[in-house]
Design brief:
With 405 residues, the protein is α/β, with parallel strands linked by helices. Helix content is 39%, strand content 20%. The strands form four sheets. It has a seven-stranded mixed beta sheet.
């Protein structure tokens, strides 16, 4: 069973998912952005109320598609949420829920245990009741609940989990609780009417045939959509060289160069140059930087030092240095600026251009590199990246073909 968890950032998780991961029963994928998510790839969804709060207004179509799939969807709120959160208000309105701060020190459960994540030492948490949903896990002698279920939707207060120590929840009972929440066992009322499929009346046959045809069409469209979203996601990965820096920038530049040059980078993230590889028996030392300024003379000097240090370590001297080694500087200039502001600025000064030519350092800005990669993917003969690296130094910015405004 594949489960998608949606929280506000990649480091965030619900305690419910921690329990699921602890049991190693299911595969949980964490995401924090709605972009390029293929909902058909997952069997169930766990969504934090914070994520709902921050994404519903601008991405309502995503949640509408989620509802249409009718897969188990669990909305989880926690000790940081209150009744005034827009996500909580949305759930309250849609499912006719009343939230109330209640004592949760004593709970009545059946064959699984549950304790809500508490707000303070008084063991208070937001409980619920609703005339539109079924409630579970009563506070003793009340009609308040911490888990509400309506069809495939569950709304619940996050777990208060201990795996060790005196207050540990009973791990042996957790599978029953998780199965209930993920709706793995069908309800008896649903099982009881399965035999009705053996009864045919009126236009049942025509309806089922048409439904089957439509389901096939929908499945085909969803697969095509998933394929297109995957391609968009890959394109976005390459576009990240226009705003990223550090290891992320090095990683994407490495992927582009390996593909365009048909090589394998021999070393990455050295204390000296970022990338090292051989090209036509020539040692290529690549410095990759994301900076909030244009190409600078110090950048050229740094690459030249990499070349000299490498030459000395490998006992290469004199004219053989330029014959056997080449420095490359790939820079994402003005990385913190938006695109319009970025392209309004000069990437090079005349002094930097002169230094690049004199020191025989090949320079490329990431906009130009992305343009070259895009053209090369459409026609592999249109760009000779090997020749650019081996035989050119300063490369004039060239990116107009990929800018659309």
């Amino acid at each position: 069973m594949n489960i998608l968890q949606l929280c506000n950032n990649i480091e965030e998780s619900t305690n419910l998912c921690d329990v699921i991961n602890y049991m190693n029963y299911f595969k949980v994928v964490n995401k924090f952005k709605i972009d390029n998510i293929s909902l058909v790839s997952y069997d169930a969804f766990i969504i934090s109320v914070d994520f709902l709060t921050n994404n519903y207004e601008n991405n309502s179509s995503f949640f509408e598609e989620l509802n249409r799939l009718k897969k188990p969807t669990i909305y989880v709120y926690n000790a940081n949420n209150d009744m005034d959160d827009s996500g909580m208000k949305l759930l309250a309105e849609k499912y006719k829920i009343k939230f109330k701060l209640s004592d949760c020190s004593v709970l009545e459960t059946s064959n699984w245990n549950y304790k809500p994540d508490i707000y303070d030492d008084y063991e208070e948490a937001l409980s619920m009741n609703s005339t539109a949903c079924k409630g579970y896990c009563n506070i003793k002698n009340t009609n308040q609940f911490y888990i509400l279920k309506k069809n495939n939707i569950i709304i619940m207060h996050d777990l208060y989990v201990y795996y060790y120590g005196q207050n540990q929840l009973d791990v042996s009972r957790m599978p029953n609780m998780v199965k209930f929440i993920l709706q793995i066992d069908e309800e008896e009322s649903e099982e009881a009417v399965e035999w009705l499929n053996n009864i045919t009346i009126l236009d049942d046959v025509k309806i089922r045939e048409k439904l089957n045809i439509n389901n096939q069409k929908v499945e085909k469209l969803l697969k095509e959509k998933e394929n297109l979203e995957s391609k968009i996601e890959k394109n976005e990965y390459y576009k990240s060289i226009l705003y990223s820096s550090g290891d992320k920038l090095v990683e994407v530049v490495k992927a582009i160069l390996e593909e365009m040059l048909n090589i394998i980078v021999d070393d990455i993230d050295l204390k000296k140059q970022d990338l090292y590889f051989n090209l036509d028996k020539k040692s290529i030392l690549v410095e990759v930087k994301g900076v909030n300024h244009p190409f600078q003379r110090d950048n050229i000097s740094q690459v030249k030092r990499h070349v000299k240090d490498y030459a000395e370590e490998n006992q290469i001297y004199g004219a053989d240095v330029d014959k056997n080694c080449k420095g490359v500087l790939i820079l994402n200039p003005y990385s913190k600026h938006d695109l319009k502001e970025k392209i309004s600025k000069d990437f090079y000064s005349q002094e930097v251009i002169a230094d690049a030519e004199y020191e025989k350092v090949c320079t490329l800005d990431t906009l130009t590199l992305l343009n070259y990669y895009s053209k090369w993917k459409n026609d592999s003969k249109s760009i000779d990246m090997k020749n650019i690296i081996l035989n050119t130094n300063y490369n004039k910015p060239d990116y107009n073909e990929i800018i659309n405004f």
